[in-house]
Backbone:
């Protein structure tokens, strides 16, 4: 891998000469992107697969300040090389690659400027809950790598702890009010018996055909020792640090504006997550306008349901009537699974390219479920939160499944991975503005696909859209205008049909994760706007399947590049993907 890395001085010298063609300029960009890609894989400790996906290796990434700063310096060098290449001499595909690489590099540099690693978790995400294997591995080598990673945990946790201490020392921490009860996600890993640890799960049913019995026993013995000697002590010490050192010293303020250089930090977070050049004031106004528009739609759906009371009374009815509450976790999972299968029956009408990769639907890990969001989707699985069933009304499940599973995140990630013409460095890139914008867009698409069957499910969809519009107001309210936690909760609760539990966990998420909540609505508005532009320009030549294929073939890009690609789609007369038959 390191042999493929372009030395900075040599690469800079190469970039001085002018290319003979756009293809040559693209080739120089490709070499730069490959160097970046290989370096980031080497740094992460992961192993690249033939399809461009990556798997965990024998070690975890170094997160020391020195490692972060070294990566940022590399990013500065690559950015200088990218500037030297320029965009004018690139092909249209090359300009997209350059825009993606630029945003990745600028984000790395921006995070280093604000030493983002000194706040290594928030109320929604952390570095310790996703390390344990959830199922059996395929081979003995996979198990050996897993055991090696377990042995690496004390080092990894110690580096994160040192970073968190540095953040505390300068007032850069998660707000204390958002951390109540979050120690439960650590306590689940502090066990006396190694076989009761979440890390033991892959050893419960090892693949008999792939690993001989004697080898299985050796691996199990090594795993017991690794859990007892490395994993459990590391979690025990991290739990002690969290309870005794971190939480008592965290800040009591809420907004990012209270950070050192907080206004600049929030601007950087806005740009990172939205990929747009918008100010907090502009986003706040957009949010207020969207809240008013969606409220009018809610009134219409309430009337369709035959409810004669006020909108607030309708929301209270939806939150409390037993008909909307799953009786068991399996009932909620069954509703989600049935929605996913009904979506399967409509995909061919809305997409020309259908991915081979399949996903599962599984419950959120119980250790983090009490404070986790309603669901989350990824390449291999969608997670549905079955904790506190009264807070997960069934009328929300269709929209949630569309967003997280198909044609949302899992579907989108599979298509991104299966685009052979897309450079390797882009196949697993994720920009929140594009990815979450797509997730919210397909909630809306579910209306056209006929997925919502009752006024209640349509109201659930509108409530979810309102939830994302409210985020624009609440996130900027907290981090720019100084809103209180109670003000944010009241604003969210009074405008959506989210349960009180979800309102509380969501607001704490926005408080502790500045800017991320802005990506959803701004991304969705961009996607709906460029679709409307294409429909109007192309008229009868517009094919929804071709439009969706072109959007998803991008993988994930900054939103301005999405608009540029749809402008080209319009100029080409609405052509779909090469090699896909649209009959």
Residues:
């Amino acid at each position: 891998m390191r042999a493929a890395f372009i030395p900075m001085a040599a690469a800079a010298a190469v970039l001085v000469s002018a290319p003979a063609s756009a293809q040559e300029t693209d080739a120089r960009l490709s070499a730069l992107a490959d160097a970046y890609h290989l370096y980031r894989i080497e740094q992460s400790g992961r192993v690249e697969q033939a399809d461009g996906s990556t798997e965990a290796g024998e070690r975890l990434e170094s997160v020391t300040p020195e490692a972060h700063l070294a990566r940022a310096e590399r990013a500065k060098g690559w950015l200088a090389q990218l500037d030297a290449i320029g965009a004018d001499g690139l092909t249209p595909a090359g300009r997209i690659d350059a825009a993606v690489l630029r945003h990745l590099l600028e984000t790395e540099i921006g995070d280093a400027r604000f030493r983002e690693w000194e706040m290594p978790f928030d109320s929604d995400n952390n570095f310790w809950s996703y390390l344990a294997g959830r199922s059996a591995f395929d081979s003995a080598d996979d198990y050996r790598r897993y055991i090696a990673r377990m042995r690496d945990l004390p080092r990894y946790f110690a580096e994160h702890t040192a970073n968190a201490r540095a953040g505390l020392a300068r007032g850069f921490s998660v707000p204390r009010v958002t951390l109540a009860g979050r120690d439960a996600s650590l306590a689940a890993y502090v066990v006396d018996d190694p076989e009761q640890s979440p890390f033991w799960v892959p050893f419960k049913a090892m693949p008999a055909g792939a690993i001989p019995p004697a080898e299985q026993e050796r691996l199990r013995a090594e795993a017991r020792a690794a859990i007892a000697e490395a994993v459990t002590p590391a979690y025990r010490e991290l739990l002690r640090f969290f309870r005794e050192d971190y939480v008592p010293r965290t800040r009591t303020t809420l907004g990012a504006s209270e950070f050192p250089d907080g206004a600049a930090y929030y601007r950087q977070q806005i740009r990172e997550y939205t990929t747009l050049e918008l100010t907090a004031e502009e986003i706040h106004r957009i949010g207020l306008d969207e809240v008013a528009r969606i409220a009018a739609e809610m009134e219409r759906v309430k009337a369709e349901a035959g409810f004669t009371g006020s909108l607030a009374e309708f929301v209270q009815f939806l939150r409390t009537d037993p008909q909307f509450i799953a009786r068991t976790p399996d009932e909620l999972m069954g509703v989600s699974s049935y929605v996913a299968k009904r979506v399967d029956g409509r995909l061919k009408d809305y997409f020309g390219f259908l991915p081979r990769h399949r996903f599962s639907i599984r419950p959120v890990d119980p250790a983090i479920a009490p404070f986790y969001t309603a669901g989350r989707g990824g390449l291999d699985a969608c997670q549905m939160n079955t904790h506190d069933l009264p807070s997960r009304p069934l009328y929300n499940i269709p929209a949630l499944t569309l967003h997280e599973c198909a044609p949302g995140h899992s579907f989108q990630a599979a298509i991104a991975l299966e685009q052979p013409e897309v450079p390797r460095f882009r196949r697993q890139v994720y920009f929140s503005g594009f990815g979450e914008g797509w997730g919210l867009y397909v909630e809306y698409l579910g209306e056209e696909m006929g997925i919502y069957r009752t006024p209640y499910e349509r109201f659930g969809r509108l409530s979810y859209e309102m939830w994302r519009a409210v985020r624009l107001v609440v996130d900027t309210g907290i981090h720019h205008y100084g809103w209180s936690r109670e003000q944010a909760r009241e604003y969210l609760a009074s405008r959506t049909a989210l349960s009180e539990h979800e309102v509380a966990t969501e607001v704490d998420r926005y408080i502790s994760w500045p800017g991320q909540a802005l990506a959803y609505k701004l991304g969705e508005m961009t996607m709906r706007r460029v679709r409307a532009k294409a429909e109007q320009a192309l008229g009868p030549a517009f094919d929804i399947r071709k439009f969706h294929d072109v959007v998803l073939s991008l993988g994930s890009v900054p939103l301005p590049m999405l608009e540029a690609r749809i402008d080209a789609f319009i100029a080409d007369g609405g052509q779909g993907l090469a090699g896909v038959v649209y009959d």
Q: What stands out?
A: Residues 190 and 236 are 6 Å apart (CA to CA). The first strand starts at residue 46 and ends at 48. The first helix runs from residue 8 to 16. The chain has a mean pLDDT of 92.
